[in-house]
Amino acid sequence: MTQYDDANIFARILRGEIPSHSVYEDAEAIAFMDVMPQGPGHLLVVPKAASRNLLDADPAVLSRLMPVVQKLARAAKLAFAADGVTVMQFNEPASGQTVFHLHVHIIPRFDGEPLHPHTGTMEKPEILAENAERVRAALGGK
Ligand code: AMP
């Protein structure tokens, strides 16, 4: 198993070294908007505990993470009046993983609309800020 490297971009976001469009934080996890969204409202849930991906994660961390994923998936669906939600998670480069701190993708889905490419186009900061506000409002409104 390749070692965890705490210079990865999500570890830096967790340490507050670089900004993100944050939507949620609790004792276990944070969530923020993906800067290259595969659809409107694409966000990432990131546990605070360090692991490279699902394969080396502590099962106790995983069991506390899934309720947060559910909370954010419900909020994202509500915020964007989506028809469904895709939840994805990649492990190692062969699977498409590009950032090596465990994270779960949550993407609101709309009937007949395909996903944009993975790590495709950088979204405008003002759109990410607006979308983050929508998710925060949906979380607060429950
Ligand atoms: P993965 O391929 O599963 O490792 O996904 C990493 C995701 O992180 C991709 O969807 C990227 O668009 C996204 N990403 C990379 N850097 C940042 C960042 N600084 N803030 C938010 N999302 C990011």
TrEMBL record:
Domain HIT per the UniProt entry, residue ranges: 9-116
Cited CDD domains: HINT_subgroup (cd01277)
Keywords: Methyltransferase, Transferase
Enzyme class: transferase
PROSITE patterns, sorted: HIT_2
Highest taxon, organism lineage: Bacteria
Span of the annotated motif Histidine triad motif: 101-105
Enzyme Commission number: 2.1.1.-
GO molecular function: methyltransferase activity
Gene Ontology biological-process annotations: methylation
Protein name (database record): HIT family protein
